[in-house]
Write a sequence for this structure.
């Protein structure tokens, strides 16, 4: 087994140039929401070359829309195909899903980019461009790992189910579609940008919109009205108290260095229409973090209930309760035990190849891992070569060495997890 | 003298129908900002019929723009003429300015009007329409008073300077233009809607815009940022303290029943661009009331200074001071001593005709009286037939009886103030 691992690692090292070329090709396709097809075409062709059994389909909104965890702003997924590519095992081994998203967030202000976000230029061992870190570099690492196994004639017992999905950045409809299509496995890895740390837990989140009411009046006689701006201060203070209560409950040592493991962030405020008038409406929009082990519906109920107590200390809210709406995207949290065999193996392979202990952490953001584990029942760990700090930012890049190292760790892990036929 | 007064009052009563017709004509012209000319044409023709010496001109932005109290959003005043019409006295009498604005605020949502805002329909002794109360009814009362004097062959010693000005609703450029054209008098009356109370003082106001800075971060790690929304709460609390300090100073018995004589109202708030991000900028817009005896520049300085102390309790503001901008319209405050002869006479004539004591009050809003007194040096009192509560609102109206009663009181006052030749 150790001999096999050495062989695949050597092979992966030798293929660095072709891996980088593949990454560049896929980064050069601007696969923002709704425009994923040309990038998927490159992935598809690679899967075909690898001889994988390919399932290519456009997710159906109709099939998903009754699912409690479905969210999208789209009317349809036409021209936005999902890909699942199967390397069938010989049997009697554990199966694994390798899941990565092909969609990227828009590049934003071009002025802030030092490299063209879609040229995939190389400098100092890094490939620059939108989606390099989040998460096309991770996807290429997975494909390299699979290719190494194929090219070195290693027969695995368990199945490898490679998934290149759409929509992760916008609510996860791509992964949900794969779950509902029936893809399951004994475990899953998502190579989102963790900087090669092992993220066994992810904070989930959901967006809320609050309508805080007031009573209009002329500013010169403001005492005749009730300012929705002042009332919204009360609401924000109440949310702060709730944040404290929710975070005080978290005893997980993984969060011991995190000031606020699951923050409630009011990110947007707008209200009032005229400087000389008392505002009669303020709208607050924000994000409520969800703990890895928390049920999203329970979390919603807790927020709702806590906001309803506003009327106990301020009669205004009794007569004029705050309107609460859950809107926009939400990301399910995810947790996997650090004792799970997939994590144990990942740690082992990491140490063997990197020469040091892997760092286990919890992420402050969600991934499709929440869907895989909570909706799909597949224990999921997040481990990838990109860096959180450049995801969604200008000058996004990936270090080529980390992509290669991740591919090696993954290939070794696959051999251990799925089991190799002697 | 008393005989003269009785005569003019009888005459005014007999002219109710023609006064109402004139009011209807002028209300039927929609004299919103920039479209005052057709309403002014009606006023002009009336002044011509009365044999007054007419000065008709379009205010010059150039002549005004260096004036510290000039404000406009307009590029020019073409087709927006001011009218000043003089009834020259024989000499040795006190002069008076009778000032009213011809501009009206837009009618707003038509759905909320029960009468067409520009038909000037009569129902139950009221004329309905935009501008009836604010303040065309008051203007017609002034013209009736002048007409009564002319038609009854009364020769006054002092001059009557009738002014029909533009732009009161948008910063007072019309009245400022008249001041800069040299019109002065020993006193002035503005028949803004006081419901026939005597407003010797008016709250002034000025608009401010505050930019409160934060530091952006992802909502999931909000502790890495600084929320401009939370910082704006601190700023709002600071403004509340300042409001208390400013209002605690006011000992004027006229304000004894007013909870907050000169409020600071934050009427608009907006900030943040994304629910999941920590907001790095919040913009607050509001109105700061100015006391009748206060200097507007001193008030500005006080606000500025107080906001600068934010850094003493919160280091963030030391590094990131709040940006303060005075923008948009401002209305100068006004005060006139209750012992001033113009007020004494007005009270006397009010009591003689209404059979009860006049109510003296301070208004929570400014008028062109601030400009007349502070920029023009003319002691000004506000007294008119309209009702504050319907000004700027749908279903604005004026009671015909109050317009007629006001005309009578004004005519008697003019006889007393300017002095009649035997």
């Amino acid at each position: 087994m150790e001999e096999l691992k050495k062989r695949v690692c050597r092979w992966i090292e030798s293929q660095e140039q072709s891996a980088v070329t593949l990454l560049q090709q896929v980064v050069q396709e601007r696969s923002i929401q709704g425009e994923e097809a040309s990038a998927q075409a490159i992935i598809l062709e690679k899967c075909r070359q690898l001889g994988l059994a390919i399932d290519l389909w456009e997710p159906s909104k109709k099939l998903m829309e009754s699912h409690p965890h479905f969210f999208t702003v789209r009317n349809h997924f036409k021209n936005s195909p999902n890909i699942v590519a199967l390397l069938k095992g010989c049997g009697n081994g554990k199966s694994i899903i390798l899941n990565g998203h092909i969609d990227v967030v828009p590049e934003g202000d071009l002025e802030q980019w030092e490299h063209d976000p879609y040229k995939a230029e190389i400098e100092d061992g890094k490939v620059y461009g939108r989606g390099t870190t989040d998460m096309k570099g991770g996807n290429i690492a997975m494909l390299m790992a699979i290719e190494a196994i194929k090219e070195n004639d290693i027969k695995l017992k368990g199945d490898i189910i490679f998934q290149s999905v759409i929509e992760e950045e916008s609510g996860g409809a791509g992964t949900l579609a794969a779950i509902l299509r029936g893809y399951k496995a004994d475990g899953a890895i998502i190579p989102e940008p963790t900087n090669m740390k092992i993220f066994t837990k992810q904070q989930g989140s959901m967006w809320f919109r609050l309508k805080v009411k007031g009573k209009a009046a002329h500013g010169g006689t403001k005492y005749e009205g009730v300012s929705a701006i002042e009332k919204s201060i009360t609401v924000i203070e109440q949310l702060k108290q709730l944040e404290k209560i929710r975070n005080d409950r978290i005893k997980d040592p993984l969060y011991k260095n995190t000031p606020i493991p699951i923050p409630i962030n009011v990110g947007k405020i707008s209200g009032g229409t005229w400087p000389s008038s008392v505002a009669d409406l303020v709208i607050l929009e924000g994000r409520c973090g969800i703990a890895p082990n928390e049920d999203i519906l329970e979390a919603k109920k807790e927020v709702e209930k806590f906001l309803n107590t506003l009327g106990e200390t301020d009669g205004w809210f009794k007569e004029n309760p705050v309107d609460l709406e859950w809107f926009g995207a939400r990301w399910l949290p995810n947790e996997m035990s650090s004792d799970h065999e997939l994590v144990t193996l990942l740690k082992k392979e990491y140490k063997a190849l990197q020469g040091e202990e892997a760092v286990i952490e919890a992420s402050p953001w969600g991934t499709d891992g929440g869907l895989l584990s909570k909706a799909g029942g597949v224990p999921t760990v997040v481990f990838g070569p990109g860096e959180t700090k450049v995801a969604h930012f200008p000058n996004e890049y990936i270090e080529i060495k980390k992509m290669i190292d991740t591919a090696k760790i993954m290939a070794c892990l696959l051999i251990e997890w799925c089991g190799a036929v002697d």
Remarks:
- Chain A has two domains: 2-202+333-418, 204-331.
- Chain A touches chain B at residues 203, 205, 207-209, 218-223, 227, 229-230, 232-233, 236, 259-260, 263, 265-279, 282, 285-287, 289, 328, 364-365 (CB under 8 Å).
